[in-house]
Amino acid sequence: MAGNVRDYPKLAKDILSAVGGEDNIVSATRCATRLRLVLKRSNPQAKEEISAMPGVVTVVENGGQFQVVIGQHVGEVYEHFSNLINLDAVHTENENKGTILNRIIATMSAVFAPFVYILAAAGILQGLLIIINLLFDSFAETGTYQVLSFISWAPFTFLPIFIAITASKHFKTNTYIAVACCAALVSPTWAEMAAQISEGSNINFIGIALTETTYTSSVLPPLFLVWILSYLERFLNKYINEVIKPLFVPFFSLVIMVPLTITLIGPLTTMGANGIANGYNFLAENAPIVAGAIIGSLWQVIVIFGVHWGVTPMVLANFDLYGRDSFQAYQTIAVIAQVGAVLGVILKAKSQETRKVSVSAGVTGIFGITEPAIYGVNLRFKKPFIFGCIGGGIGAITASFFNPYYFAYAGLPGPLTIVNGINEDYPMSVWGILIGAAIAIILPVVLVQIFGYGETNDSSKTASLENTNTSSAPEIAATTITELTVNSPMSGKVVPLSQVPDEVFSSGAMGQGIAIEPTENKVIAPFEGTVVMIAPTKHAIGLRSETGVELLIHIGLDTVTLDGSPFTVKVKDGEKFNKGDLLIEFDKDYIESKGLKTITPVIVTNTFAYEEVIIEKVENCTFNQTLFTVIK
């Protein structure tokens, strides 16, 4: 559950604890919105536990990774998380290799995610220069333009050095050796030699003819260089004497890897990257409608699973080969469509909480980051995500008729990067993108207004599905329940949630509700419903009413540390119960003897799905006394 949290050290520590500690981690990286972990052993409870932490949007397990979606503050969390672990001590043989596809995706993410904002910043600068040149024809002839221009191109020119830094960490090899090798690839001297070869000169290395391939802005050649270097370095470290190792490991690495790259690795990998790019370009040029439909409608589905980094080499190859790329043009429209879906929810929602969450998610979408919009709003209600995919597909199909391209790389394609589609040789390109973007943002808004967004997801329908074997199911399905009275599951003193000495609860990040300081040692059912969660340590239970209200009863604070000792659960996960049934018995005196508080938060965890939660003004409560009313 996302929350407005600033205690990043605590969040990092809690995530580490939930996934099983440092001993269970193979690798940890981050991207623009996600903390990406590779674990030795999967913990079924970790996903649910971490998803509920304030500051976490959701958790996705895919591509061999345990991905914690955090949003724009992932950098702070990752910084503190990386300080808690020593990844250098992890041995290669302990790595969870997974399938080849998973390993490729994990590598792409680990390599590109750390510097994506640098490329995005450079792309925005290039977009601004495009606009200024349109407004002032003479600006391109000024020294100011020349300085800003070479600044904007620098990250792409020296991209192999960025890759050397991140890839060396991923493949666990010496960063300085990797940088030295990749710096040689972008040396001006090699560029001059390659130019001579392209003009007909014959230059060879120990009898091997060199090709005219250059490596500025390249992706796969430096990536493969560092990967192979990791094996070479381990071999050299094993067999070279300790006394001369500091000098001769770098020496042999340089004289072996750089020539090997420019004679074999570079030409082959460049050919592969260009081949993939040309394959996509063939589709985009000969069946643009198909390319637009696929990317516009399915790109955000790919983002859900966190495998979107896999297209980066192809996109960069397009810019390097042709100075333009249509993939990012369609990609931008897909991003904008999800922003449009969120806007539709903002306009349609009656709940202030839903609007608040939607506005926050929509703002990040403007900057090309859609995970908060997807997980916080669109997928939560399902319909908006589907409408976003429809809008993205139709928008991209429409744009395809205008031959849309990006002429500057966008690290995070979105509304702010549309200017990257401006080019005097392709005057209709930006118009196609603008028209496609307009459709992408308007169509989901219209669809949400017409068909709704799922907040009123007929809880009655849910109830009828859960009760298809009972004779009362048709009656339930035919009735629209607009409110639910939640009775007290305990007897004791009522405390406002804001006064609970735990920020997770007091901040309201978990939802609205109250807390009770119990005077008796039992928890009873506050309504009729189903048990949906029992904590492994028995200190908390999740309930769902027949009308869809989800309630968390968390007995005491930090009682998870008691490992279930004072708790006796009387129901099972998935079991149905009636109002007043005994759910849990606990030993209040035992909990207090351990120095822990018994104050018990009682929270509506799906508050966002309701118009209002009306809290009763009572100082003390008894079993079955009304605590609050949930209004649809």
Low-confidence stretches: 1-5, 89-97, 456-481
- Sheet of most strands: 8 strands, antiparallel
Q: Mind telling me the C-alpha Rg?
A: 29 Å
Q: What is the percent of helical residues?
A: 40-55%
**Which class do the helix and strand fractions yield?**
alpha+beta
First-residue to last-residue Cα separation? 21 Å
The portion of residues forming beta strands comes to 5-15%
Query: Can you tell me the overall shape?
Result: globular
Number of strands: 20
The strand line-up of the biggest sheet is 15-11-12-13-17-9-8-19
Enumerate how many helices there are, as a single number.
22
Q: Kindly state the mean pLDDT as a whole number?
A: 83
Can you give a write-up of this model?
The chain is an alpha+beta fold and 632 residues long. It contains 22 helices and 20 strands. The protein has an eight-stranded antiparallel sheet with strand order 15-11-12-13-17-9-8-19, with no helix packed on it. The longest helix has 42 residues, at 245-286. It is globular, with a radius of gyration of 29 Å. The relative contact order is 0.08. Mean pLDDT is 83; it is low at 1-5, 89-97 and 456-481.
